[in-house]
């Protein structure tokens, strides 16, 4: 009987991939709640139930953990390539529409609240020049613009090139960031419905009719 009890309570050994995922999930939750500066590697270890050395074995350092959390979690999904594979209106190669993609991105973000909260917290923290992601966030607008410029968007003929759409892209990203902050607060709002109200202001008629 004692042998059976011991066997039933054997510690389940997780694969390296499972353990790393568990560590990063805990880091996402803790950073989104307290900020990067408000947590330690020990906090993550306690949340997962392993030693600090055990966490460092998978992440290397606290700064490296942050890069993994941001680059491998928040930045990984909701990209244009995924949109092009979605089959949604405005996602085909010959009819790739920027407003349709941004609508898709808002919907994607509406399904990952914790990661959006993580992004919002980091966005404020990274004003500090000493923050590990300071340069990443300082150059975020330029990086996104360069990324979007790599696709052949279908835009109104009144624009001579996609470069002329850059001010609109900047405003759209700023509005999106603001709406997401409001979404994270109480009372709750519907992120998709809120974006739907702003979209005609960013991409007005008749200029963008047929290109949304």
UniProtKB/TrEMBL annotation:
Q: Where is the HTH tetR-type domain?
A: 17-77
Task: Tell me the keywords, alphabetical order.
Answer: DNA-binding, Transcription, Transcription regulation
For this protein, the record's Gene3D superfamilies field holds:
Tetracycline Repressor, domain 2 (1.10.357.10)
Note whether DNA-binding occurs among the keywords: yes
GO MF term list:
DNA-binding transcription factor activity; transcription cis-regulatory region binding
Listed InterPro entries: Homeodomain-like_sf (IPR009057), HTH-type_TetR-like_transc_reg (IPR050109), HTH_TetR (IPR001647)
Question: What are the DNA-binding region positions?
Answer: 40-59
According to UniProt, the name of this protein is AcrR family transcriptional regulator
């Amino acid at each position: 009987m004692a042998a059976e009890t011991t066997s039933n309570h054997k510690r389940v050994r997780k694969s390296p991939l499972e353990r790393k995922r568990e560590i990063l999930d805990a880091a996402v939750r803790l950073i989104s709640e307290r900020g990067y500066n408000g947590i330690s590697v020990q906090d993550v270890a306690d949340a997962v139930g392993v030693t600090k050395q055990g966490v460092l074995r998978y992440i290397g350092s606290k700064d490296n953990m942050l890069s993994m959390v941001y680059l491998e979690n928040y930045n990984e999904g909701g990209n244009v390539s995924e949109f092009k594979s979605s089959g949604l209106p405005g996602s085909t190669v010959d009819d790739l529409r920027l407003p349709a993609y941004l609508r898709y991105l808002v919907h994607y973000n509406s399904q990952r609240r914790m990661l959006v909260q993580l992004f919002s917290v980091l966005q404020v923290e990274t004003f500090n020049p000493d923050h590990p992601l300071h340069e990443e966030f300082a150059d975020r607008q330029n990086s996104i613009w360069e990324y979007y410029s790599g696709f052949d968007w279908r835009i109104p003929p009144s624009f001579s090139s996609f470069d002329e759409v850059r001010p609109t892209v900047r405003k759209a990203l700023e509005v999106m960031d603001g709406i997401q902050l409001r979404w994270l607060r109480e009372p709750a709002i519907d992120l998709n419905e809120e974006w739907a109200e702003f979209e005609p202001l960013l991409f007005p008629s008749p200029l963008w009719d047929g290109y949304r």
